[in-house]
Design brief:
This protein is of the alpha+beta class and about 110 residues long. The protein is elongated, with a radius of gyration of 17 Å. The two termini are about 20 Å apart. The mean pLDDT is about 85. This is UPF0145 protein EGT51_12225.
Length: about 110
């Protein structure tokens, strides 16, 4: 796959382009039961829950990879105005969406 530029800005310096449409990448992640128990114990004493931080980082990367694939399938050269949205599903699952606007260079 040719690397699709993904940017949070509206304009790509030095590029003119036309808008193709909205693109997105989604994932839902969960940790295993053993790690959930460890996270629950950490919740008692406070502090960062590193397994969940790692899970969210992985989820964001997967969501952006899927966004790039979606953009490439639409014939895009880049994605502008990329944003993330996330939310919990139950007590141990996290959903992450990456979305933006696919564009084609002129």
């Amino acid at each position: 796959m040719t690397e699709i530029l993904v940017t949070t800005t509206e304009h790509i310096p030095g590029q003119e382009y036309e808008v193709i449409g909205e693109v997105f990448g989604l994932t839902t992640q969960s940790k295993n039961v053993i790690r959930n128990i460890g996270a629950s114990l950490k919740n008692v004493v406070g502090g960062e829950i590193k397994d969940y931080t790692k899970m969210l980082d992985e989820a964001r990367n997967i969501a952006v990879d899927r966004l790039r694939v979606n953009a490439q399938n639409m014939g895009a050269d880049a994605v502008v105005m990329m944003r993330f949205d996330s939310g919990s599903i139950g007590t141990d699952m996290q959903s992450v969406a990456a979305y933006g606007t696919a564009v084609k260079y002129l």
